[in-house]
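We read letters as residues; the fold follows as tokens. Both lines appear below.
***
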Amino acid sequence: MRTKTDAAKTEAFRSDMISGRTELDTMTADEETHGWFAVYTKSRHEKKVDWALTEKSVETFLPLLEVLVRWKDRNKSVHVPLFPGYLFVHIDPKERLDVLTTDGVVRILGSSGAPVPVPLREIESTRKLLRSGLKFKPFPYELEGKKAVIVSGPLEGARGKVLYTRGGCNLIMSVNLIRRSVSVEVDINDVEFV
């Protein structure tokens, strides 16, 4: 059941969506020069690179997925990268040398030798998914589906594409630069098509 505050939040969110206002409109000067960039790492070096960059005081984001691994004598829950081979760094592109000289880093994704930032909306949607506590799983990179935004619930504000499956309604959230997606089941009542 929705409360008055939920309805007010939803209405405010809808008015922001209609007017085009986003969190990007309230960026500070530091945030305008800094951006989120995708870092491609050596195979199975994501956590090591994340640790090394954190030691260099570089802000990182390594989305992890908890999986159950079955060994001969036991089952164990381990955290593996949600996007194998990638992590994200929040840097000024002019200061990318600290990242590139880190052991295990292959390159920062870009075009024509210049790094290309990952849209803040994609980073924020991934963070909301991780904080939501909902079950999600990697999904093949999809270009199909109807564009939608979640207007209520733990994923409020998250954007993606909706695909209908046997199990119900799934929101497919993608990080387009690395061509990776994640699927999470959502209530159709929480979805607004854009």
Q: What stands out?
A: The two ends are 24 Å apart (CA to CA).
